[in-house]
Predict the 3D structure of the following.
Amino acid sequence: MFFNKKDPPIVISVGGSLIVPNGGIDTKFLANLNHFIRAQVAKGRRFILIAGGGKIARHYQEAGRTVIGNINDEDLDWLGIHATRFNAHLLRTIFQDIAHPRIITNYDKKLSNWKEPVAIGAGWKPGWSTDYDAVILARDFRANLVINLSNVEGIYDKDPKKYPEAKIINKITWDEVEKIIGTEWRPGLNAPFDPIATPLAKRLGLTVIVTSGHNFNNLEKIIEGKSFKGTVITPFRIDSSYYDREYYFGNKDVHKLIKPDSGIGKLVYEFFSSLNALNYKLSFKPKSSLELGCGLGKIVKYLRMFGVDARGIDFSKKAYELAEKEIKPYLLIAEATRLPFKDNEFDLVYSHNLLEKLEYDKIRKTIKESIRVSRKYIVHRIFTKESLLYQLFNKRDFSDISFFYRRQWEKIFSDFSDQVSILRKKISLLSFSETKIVLKKK
């Protein structure tokens, strides 16, 4: 198996309702899960699967109540925990040849010496759910995404069992989830994501996808970064841009040393914009260029001063309004996933800290479009997790919802190797705390 242990695993919370629905163990689902995970492992991926309790947990809890009446929450929780461990052992048996021999049941201790492509987790202790366990594992193993598999396609605006007209919510924030599910944990709670795990996921800035566990084609689309059915839970809404959100003005403050809206901050912004423009001019000698996510168009302005027919696009109307009057004719309000330009129109297409702010399915579309409209060079500069300079001078920006390691970005770009070559150390580029991906069109 050719997986790399440095690559973060994919954390999947397998709802107990999928393993043990009403009517007994669903062997068809387990067979499909077995086939799917093994096929993904063959592609070099690693997984942590956390088993839920499902109906068997609720049956035991109901049985206890029937016999003795009231049961305290701790005993109810222990019944549910043991149900998750029974289900986890079933998963461990199914994947015994490719899974770590120990089932994770103590989340105070990180799984050590994990060499296998699969690890299995179960319930921990009273007061903590398997959703919470999944979030802890995502934190400990630096996973970017938690996939929550259940018997529904996502989070709905109403209970779909009671209201046939209920509609699925495609995107939602952690704040909005908290309003739906509340803040109190109850043993046997049946919620799209539990109230104990939600605050931790919010604090860590995790992205969680809630989707059906019966549609494995859809699950593959999620992992491949394609359009899928389900609900995406993110720290912030990413359907408006940098300059459209009040968060970025009053509450963001991710720079440790310089306030971007201060007088000094604006001067520094101008200085580095001119320096970046000069760098592009000297490194690539373009006659024409396009910046994706250009914001106020500062780099576009300086490139034009250096004799380049520079243009920029951004989907923020507010950014366009704030741009200097003389540069506005060269800026356009547009989506990076659908560029309103012809094939091979620009010598250079570039972006600064744009891709990490996009949802996973939009990243590939944006890269594809940047290649399409470029005649020669494409440059994407991205904040990545291993950047020490980024960590020293910036607080974590939770709007970077695709905050990956460089290796993960290189894997994404390698999917376009039939169209471009990735240049390594051939072109000098000012990058500071960012990872730079320089592509040359074939």
Summary: The domain at 10-234 is CATH 3.40.1160.10 (Carbamate kinase). The chain has two domains: 10-234, 247-441. The longest strand covers residues 374-382. The chain is about 35% helix and 20% strand.
